[in-house]
Design a protein that fits this description.
Layout lengths: L15 H15 L7 E6 L2 E6 L10 H8 L4 H13 L9 E3 L5 E3 L26 H12 L1 H8 L5 H17 L17
Helix pairs in contact: 4-6, 5-6
Length: 192
Amino acid sequence: PAQGERSLWDFPDDTLYLRERASWLLSDLLGWDIVPPTVIRDGPFGIGSLQLYVEPAAEMPRREAMRFWSQKRPELERMVLFDLVANSADRKLTHCLIDIHDRIWGIDHGLTFNVVPKLRTVLWQFVGDPISVELLGDLARAREDEAALRERFAGVLDDQEIVATIDRIDALLAAGCHPRLDPNRNIPYGWW
């Protein structure tokens, strides 16, 4: 719930739950189903986000998990691109799940959609690689109807955040490849 959020100097107050919803909206728009369905509800502790529970598979040993999450698999490339578009400031391995059906999910998206570049991620395996044609197509389809894209995020992101999101999609489409990252800046605090 919004009332349980801790104020952060670099994100507007009482918006982290909205960013959780916006993350699901982006995942749904792209057709990638990375983020479990997330809605806004008013509950016993006030307004906030509610996300479908995903039952995780048995936890992997750390070394095995690091090896798995560093593979170049299509479903992991989707998550990497999702984080680039959403400007995820907190992608740790503990925010990456494999469910009991071997499906990959990303959770904990409160620190997303900032207008300032904030990308922090442990998923680096695609740096400099061409973006797969299928995923470029998904980005292009999402970008085709800007009015619909803006309408989708209205009420959960402010106008500047929507424009910044569109700009990130445009940059990925123009480049056609995954951007280079800075090892001094793009690794999240407490990366595990």
